[in-house]
Structure formats: structure tokens, C-alpha cells
Amino acid sequence: MSLKDQLKDQQKLAMLAKDKQRLGAIRLLMAEIKQREVDTRVELNDQDILAVVTKMVKQRRDSISQFEAAGRQDLADKESAEIDVLQEFLPQQLTAAEIAALIEQAIAESGAAVMADMGKVMAVLKPKIQGRADVGAVSAQVKTRLA
Predict the structure, then answer these.
(1) Cys staple from 48: which of 44, 55, 65, 128, with CB 3.0 to 4.6 Å?
(2) Which Gene3D superfamilies match (predicted)?
(3) For 111, left (φ over 0), alpha (ψ -120 to 50), or beta?
(4) Domain range list for the chain
């Protein structure tokens, strides 16, 4: 079953359960997916949908920090609830040891030795960690490893 089909099923279940908060988060995700499909004129596959979910989670985390800085805990709680729903559609997160092993494997695979080769390493790594780890944090780890 594709990720898009799972989303549609979860949307129906949320409607039946009258879970407005969950339904709202799923509808936002479905709208973002539809918008991306209209913009690119291509139906998104599971990998592309994972990228959309990851981006939406990151946006929500940024919003939470801004809301908390402004003293709007009610809005921060709403964003946090949306993150909880969105994360259900992401694969199991990688552990630090798994990330380190993937970095070493990518460095060996790309033949990287210096900082200038970081792009090659990230090109190998990104498909493997998409939706399973924060790409920015992994990028920092690669940078320290190659430095």
C-alpha cells in the first residue's frame, strides 16, 4: 500500500472518529502533496511524499520555537500536535550508530577524502536518510568527519 493510500485511509478514520485535530493535520499534508503534484504535473511517489512530510515537520518545529519565544504556548501546542500526527507517516528514525555507519559507508563509496568532496558524500547519503534523520545534522557530522 502506497503512502498516499495510507494517508487517505487515515483521513477517513479520523473523519469517522471525529478527531478534528488529527483530521486537520492530515488534510494539511494532503493539500501540500496535491499542491506539489499540480506544480510539478507529476504524481508524487512515496519518496517524494516523505520529503514533503519531512519539510512540514521541520516547518512546524521552526514555528514552535518562534511561538514559544513570543509567549504563545497555545499555538506551540497546536503545532506540536500536528508534528505528532505527521511523524506517524515517517519511517523509523535512525540511531546515532546507524547514522555513523551510513556516513562511513558513503565516504568509502564516494572515495571522499577532503572537505571539497562533501557534495559527493551527501549525494550518496541523502536518499538513504530521507525522512529517517535530520539532513542538516547529518551534514554537520559529515563535515566534521571530512575536516
Answers:
(1) 44
(2) 1.10.10.410, Uncharacterised protein YqeY/AIM41 PF09424, N-terminal domain (1.10.1510.10)
(3) left
(4) 3-88, 96-146
Could you tell me the maximum CA-CA distance found in the chain, to the nearest angstrom?
55
pLDDT value of residue 32: 96
Contact by Cβ (8 Å): 22, 14: yes
Residue 106: Cβ within 10 Å count: 22
CATH for the stretch 96-146: 1.10.10.410
Rounded to 5°, the CA angle 15-81-48 comes to 75
CATH superfamily of 3-88: Uncharacterised protein YqeY/AIM41, N-terminal domain (1.10.1510.10)
* Helix runs in the chain, H state only: 3-17, 20-40, 46-69, 73-87, 96-110, 118-129, 135-146
Here the cell at position 123 is 549525494
63: which 3 cell numbers? Answer: 514555528
Alpha carbon distance 28, 35 (integer Å): 10
